[in-house]
Amino acid sequence: MPGGCSRGPAAGDGRLRLARLALVLLGWVSSSSPTSSAYSSTSSVSFLGSAVSAQPPLSSQCPPMCECSEAARTVKCVNRNLTEVPADLPLYVRNLFLTGNHLAVLPAGAFARRPPLAELAALNLSGSRLVEVHAGAFDHLPSLRQLDLSHNPLANISPFAFSGNNTSASVPSPLDELILNHIVPPADQLLKQNRSFEGMVAAALRTGHALRELRSLDLGSNQFLYLPRDVLAQLPSLRHLDLRNNSLVSLTYVSFRNLTYLESLHLEDNALKVLHNGTLAELQGLAHVRLFLDNNPWVCDCHMADMVDWLKETEIVQGKARLTCAFPEKMRNRVLLELNSSDLDCDPILPPSLQTSYVFLGIVLALIGAIFLLVLYLNRKGIKKWMHNIRDACRDHMEGYHYRYEINADPRLTNLSSNSDV
Length: 422
Known about the structure:
Elements (H helix, E strand, L loop, with lengths): L1 H30 L2 H21 L12 E3 L4 E3 L18 E3 L7 E2 L15 E3 L7 E2 L12 E3 L7 E2 L19 E3 L7 H5 L5 H10 L9 E3 L21 E3 L21 E3 L10 H8 L5 E3 L5 E2 L5 H9 L3 E2 L6 E3 L24 H27 L1 H30 L1 H11 L1
Parallel strand pairs: 2-3, 3-5, 4-6, 5-7, 6-8, 7-9, 9-10, 10-11, 11-12, 12-13, 13-15, 14-16
Antiparallel strand pairs: 1-2
């Protein structure tokens, strides 16, 4: 036991010496081959450099007039008075805000970059004083899903604004949501166009079948008086259609038949007076639609009977108990669901202001007639004498004609008158 104890420290010291010797030898080897070490270091650096250079250059520079967040994939160039789209947008941008600027014109390929902005999904151009959108303005944006052009006085939208110059139906636009509310231009700019504002918007929506994948369309607050017949013809995937706060008087010409997936249709705050049977049948044929009809000036006369019956049966109209009559005066504020066929007639009842005007006109005409008769009565003797004078003058004149006729008819009197003349 003591011998074992005495050998313990000696064995530990031996192992320590061996470890130190190994470290010294390793250091000597490394110091004796500097060329090998340098080569190893250089090769590793060159490998890292080649790996970095092999990766595509990713632009992460933020335009000087914008605010960028790479973490949120968002670039905001808001209220900067920009006159064109910044050229040095970072490639990571997914949400781009260009609101409150002075862009005026959006030319073809306005967002074309090399490499392209492949991640851009939401583009907001609202309130940027855009007047013209040229063909192919949104080309080279393969991931664009949401486009907001609201609050711009768009006097000229190219028919190929959303489809580019290629009208082929094989390459649809990736757009899922299109916001076009408050885009009506000033009246003086509308007068310069050879087409209506409604027709211009309809042409951009249907050309090239480009928007056949569109699911949401906002056309509110554009003062539309009517909807062109084929404005919705090329939008078969539409789920949500917003037409509120326009001036639509009728839906007679537009067809909803192909919108089989439509889920919501907003027609509030228009000038609709009645929905006719053809429109009612098309709306009822849409399996999933919810219809909003509040704040329209419904005219409750005999033409409203079919719509009232339809309202009582259908379940697609939201808040139908709030719908009330606006005209005629006797029906004002009557709830449509509470009307019966006996309440709906077409008697021509004039408004009170017009009735008052006609009464006043009748009184004036009667007064003029009474004055005229009074003048005749007061001058009855003079009028009688004047009529007698006219009668005598006419009689003398007719007698002279009669005498000449008798002379010309009798040859003997004709010769006598000629001899007497000699």
